[in-house]
Amino acid sequence: MPKVYTAFFRDSRAVRQFEERSAKVQSDIDRMTREIQDLRTRYANAMQSDDQNEALRLETLINRRQDYLREFYQIRTTELENEKKRLMQSGSFLEQVYDEIRFIAESEGYSIVMDLKQNNGIIWYSSTVDITDKLISNLQTRSRH
Q: Residues of the signal sequence (predicted)?
């Protein structure tokens, strides 16, 4: 479903807003990473010039920034994942997808469509195809032999 969602609904306003938020989060992460790298360079220079006070100050600052970045990443990633799930489970999206699955399945002669990546498995089935009687007959025939 994620592939279908991003391919078909990419032009929807909600998805564009989600992608903009994702890009902003990535931009913030990249910026913070560059800042930490710059602090590490300054720390190395302070160590080379034997400026212990500056090195200690920078080391403390680096640790704080790394902790903040780690927390920022975890929080924002969770928020984005939850938002993506909400978008993918919205009624209009699922309704359109299931209607199209039904149309394709019926027009191409499928009696069942399964999603092997999901626990529930069956996405669509045709109630017009019922092999129960044939199954019973075959089982009875085999049990007689």
A: none
Instruction: State the amino acid at position 112 in one-letter form.
Output: I
Q: Cα separation of 17 and 53, whole Å?
A: 45
pLDDT tens digits, one per residue of 37-52 = 999 999 999 999 999 9
Task: Look at 28-32, 35-39, 61-65, 92-96 and tell me which has the smallest mean pLDDT.
Answer: 92-96
Greater pLDDT, 109 or 132: 109
**CA–CA dist 118, 122 (Å, integer):** 9
| Encoded tokens for 51 | 């400026």
Structure token digits, residue 69: 């970045």
Q: Quick one: tokens of 125?
A: 């089935």
Quote the CA–CA distance of 42 and 62 in Å, as a whole number: 10
**Under a CB-based contact definition with an 8 Å cutoff, are residues 87 and 5 in contact?**
yes
Q: At what angle do helices 52-88 and 13-48 cross, to 10 degrees?
A: 170
- Which pLDDT belongs to residue 131? 64
